[in-house]
Amino acid sequence: MAGPVVDVHTHLVPKGWPDLAARCGGTGWPWLRVDSERAAMIMVGETEFRPIGAEAWDPGTRLADMDADGVDVQVVSPTPVFFSYDRPADQAVKVARIFNDLTLEMTGNSERFVPFCQVPLQDPEAACEELDRCLADGHAGVEIGNHVGDRDLDDAGIVMFLRHCAEVGAPVFVHPWDMPGGPRLDRWMARWLTGMPAETHLSVLALILGGVFDQVPETLRLCFAHGGGSFPFWLGRADNAWHRRGDVVRGRSAHPPSHYVDRFSVDSVVFDPAALRLLVDVLGDDRVMVGSDYPYPLGERPVGKVVRDAEFLGAEQRDKLLSGNALRFLGRTR
């Protein structure tokens, strides 16, 4: 019997939040310009960042869209613009608490929402404390950005946080963010179309070549957004470099990159059955699960379409991608 369809990659934006400068200090914070009952604009300082609609904050709208798409459960994560990793840690702690509490307010009345929190990742001890607080209050896991400034996921402090996630059984959803800009990347949404896949690719390599997967427990549950970025397509290139230029490529890894593909999962936001087949071929049908990037326009609608339309999947594989793999990631195995 097929299980509930789970979308592991969705975001929310509360309808409103306190004045962050007054509550946290500093300037240039995100704020929400409400244009109507169903439309708003995320502002960063005086710059328009992203238009959003009621689906970003209204549970009823989200549930109606889930019903239309045949989704039973959404994992609801922060929108990365609120991470605040570039702020002093005390400010980031306050921001995380504000948005984590607002997330529980929005999702707390429905068993169909699984809230994930954010943490001040620039301060690993504070991040562990905020994660523990959130788990106790009702969050089920944590979303983190793929880097903190120039510190990637093999940074000692971030590894400490990942170890803590493994110890307390918190699943970790890794989302690219803070992509470099410039004249070649600031047109055509190129930072999102090329920068995001590259950011995720780089951070998967950091976990492998930085020796993180050789250090952290295998119980750590990680999922990377957007199909793991460009990593699955270029795994062969990474293996070739590890073997032929091991003097500079191997880093602290004990094995070639392909050895570690069973240590993390990816979502299915790749839009094309051929791309989905590559994910399944490279990572295995136990390591891919439905994600949509709802409610943003670069996401997939109807949710799960690429999985449902993929003719190469058998019924058992399709159920894994739609349901079973996500339930295992969330610690709710059937």
Primary descriptors:
TIM Barrel, 11 helices, Metal_Hydrolase, 11 strands, metal-binding, three-stranded antiparallel sheet, metal ion binding, aminocarboxymuconate-semialdehyde decarboxylase activity, 334 residues, alpha/beta
Spatial sequence of strands, sheet with the most strands: 1-5-6-7-8-9-10-11
Regarding CATH, which class?
Answer: Alpha Beta
Structural class: alpha/beta
Number of E-state strands? 11
β-strand percent reads 15-25%
What is the 3D shape?
globular
According to CATH, the fold-level topology is: TIM Barrel
Helix content: 25-40%
Low-confidence stretches: none
Quick check: average pLDDT? 95
CATH architectural type: Alpha-Beta Barrel
Number of helices: 11
- Give the helices and strands as they follow along the chain: EHEEEHEHEHEHEHEHHEHEHH
Question: Any idea what the CATH superfamily is called?
Answer: Metal-dependent hydrolases
In angstroms, what is the radius of gyration?
Answer: 19 Å
The largest pleated sheet is described as: 8 strands, parallel
Number of domains: 1
Distance between the termini: 11 Å
InterPro entries: ACMSD, Amidohydro-rel, Metal_Hydrolase
GO biological process, one term: secondary metabolic process
GO molecular function, one term: hydrolase activity
Family: Belongs to the metallo-dependent hydrolases superfamily. ACMSD family.
